[in-house]
UniProtKB/TrEMBL annotation:
It comes from Paenibacillus filicis. The lineage of its organism: Bacteria, Bacillati, Bacillota, Bacilli, Bacillales. Residues 2-80 form the Threonine synthase N-terminal domain. Its EC number is 4.2.3.1. The keyword Amino-acid biosynthesis applies. SUPFAM superfamilies: Tryptophan synthase beta subunit-like PLP-dependent enzymes. Pfam families: PALP, Thr_synth_N. It comes from the Bacteria. Catalyzes the gamma-elimination of phosphate from L-phosphohomoserine and the beta-addition of water to produce L-threonine. Residues 85-404 form the Tryptophan synthase beta chain-like PALP domain. It catalyses: O-phospho-L-homoserine + H2O = L-threonine + phosphate. Belongs to the threonine synthase family. This is Threonine synthase. Its cofactor is pyridoxal 5'-phosphate. PROSITE patterns: DEHYDRATASE_SER_THR (PS00165).
């Protein structure tokens, strides 16, 4: 298996080189040269596997022997042994057709743990095997930062710097990042939005000389390993429902801001998983929903919401989808992304828009509807949603069809967003690891939102 850039100017590279490159050196995103196809017979065999066994089989398709199978098995087992639930990502049934895929049982109570526990261990493995320096640079709208830090804190040969938008993440998210006092961790609180943080990251990675000089590696979902790891729980959830005789029409409703989590579902479907529908749920920062509904990809005014991890206007994984939408035409993708950079928008129509609408359904959830969904599910099912999952639930309620098994991806534990939940007079008890955060000192630097300021911090840290 080789990996190529969506912009076509990088020679095919292997799995480990793809992980280390992160953002492609031509500014594009790396994708597998061919998507592995999974037969019906293989799906039937995989249905009986544990989560870790399933992850090993799926990763093996993409690693293609670069990591010995026993080493890969140890990486997978070590990564998912840190989860609090034996199934890793259990499926919770609410009623006859509604399900919640709980992705928050990892060490930081967020779905990002599923990929970042693995990627952290993978980076440590590569560092040991190649005697290489790993300097991780990432941006977070809330959950990625804590998960990434937890995945590599204290690991020899690795240093990590995480940018987050100052005072635009939840208090628990902030504490999970900034109470870590390890020498290999630097937290920068950037004056601006997540889009500012993400833009800085992509521009620094696009500076190939700077990237190579400081051995920069990506932890955001621009790194293909993140996407590959997230495909696993789509397969796993499908198998759990199939065991209940629900294999005919299974749809997934995915709260998303950066297009990574739902792109993993799209990739799973292209591999052969018989997904009926992918429902894309956004909050009021609804650039992705507007793209699906109207064919216009254009940032609007930034809106702070109760689901801050989705407060994103420019989705970093959107380019990967465009690559497949346009038949893997790298020249077309390059042209479209140049147009977006110059004009601030991409407009599609006709058969191309029809294909987008065949690939996804989409719904944008207003702030009050998000909170109402939390209240409704708590009253009806005695189940507490975090506000991001509530967006997925609201979209599912609007767009799921009769006779369809609808799986909502629950991306975070509700304790991470108590500020929003208390607005509906719902109280909860914090898990002990989260409660303990409030008594710890914080370690972070507040910095301006310019490339030069971040470069200065990195040069001092790395």
């Amino acid at each position: 298996m080789k990996y190529i850039s969506t912009r076509g100017q990088v020679a095919p590279i292997g799995f480990i080189d793809a992980i280390l490159m992160g953002l492609a050196d031509d500014g594009g995103l790396l994708v597998p040269e061919q998507i592995p196809q999974v037969s019906a017979d293989t799906l039937a065999q995989w249905q009986q596997l544990t989560y870790s066994e399933l992850a090993l089989e799926i990763f093996s398709l993409y690693v293609n022997g670069e990591i010995p199978r026993e080493d890969l098995k140890k990486l997978v087992d070590d990564s998912y042994s840190t989860f609090r639930h034996e199934e890793v990502t259990p499926v919770h049934q609410l009623d006859g057709s509604r399900y919640v895929l709980e992705l928050f049982h990892g060490p930081t109570f967020a779905f990002k743990d599923v990929a970042l526990q693995f990627l952290g261990n993978l980076y440590a493995y590569v560092s040991r095997k190649t005697d290489s320096i790993i300097h991780i640079l990432g941006a977070t709208s809330g959950d990625t930062g804590a998960s990434a830090i937890e995945g590599v804190r204290g690991k020899e040969g690795i240093r990590i710097c995480i940018l987050h938008p100052h005072q635009k993440v939840s208090k628990v998210q902030e504490l999970q990042m900034t109470t870590v006092d390890d020498a290999n961790v630097l937290n920068l609180a950037v004056e601006g939005t997540f889009d500012d943080c993400q833009r800085i990251i992509k521009e620094l990675f696009a500076d190939v000389e700077f990237k190579h000089k400081y051995h920069l590696r990506a932890i955001n979902s621009i790194n293909i390993a993140r996407i590959l790891a997230q495909t696993v729980y789509y397969f796993y959830a499908y198998f759990q429902l199939a065991k209940q005789g629900q294999a005919n029409k299974i749809s997934f409703s995915v709260p998303t801001g950066n297009f990574g989590d739902i792109f993993a579902g799209y990739l799973a479907k292209k591999m052969g998983l018989p997904v009926h529908k992918l429902i894309l749920a956004t909050n009021e920062n609804n650039i992705l929903a507007r793209f699906v509904q109207e064919g216009v990809y254009q940032p609007g005014d930034f809106r702070g919401t109760y689901s801050p991890s989705m407060d994103i206007q420019v989705a970093s994984n959107f380019e990967r989808y465009m690559f497949y939408l346009y038949g893997e035409d790298a020249a077309k993708v390059t042209s479209l992304m140049a147009q977006f950079k110059a004009e601030g928008s991409i407009v599609i129509e006709g058969d191309v828009l029809k294909q987008v609408q065949a690939d996804f359904a989409a719904y944008s959830v207003e702030n009050e509807e998000c909170l109402n969904t939390i209240s409704d599910y708590h009253a009806k099912y005695q189940y507490l949603l975090d506000p991001h999952t509530a967006c997925g639930a609201a979209a599912s309620d609007r767009l799921a069809e009769d006779g369809e098994a609808a799986v909502v991806l629950s991306t975070a534990h509700p304790a991470k967003f108590d500020e929003a939940i208390r607005l509906r007079q719902i109280s909860q008890t914090y898990p002990e690891p989260i409660q303990a955060l409030f008594d710890k000192p914080q370690f972070q630097k507040v910095v301006g939102g310019t490339n030069e300021e971040i470069q200065k911090q990195l040069e001092s840290f790395f």
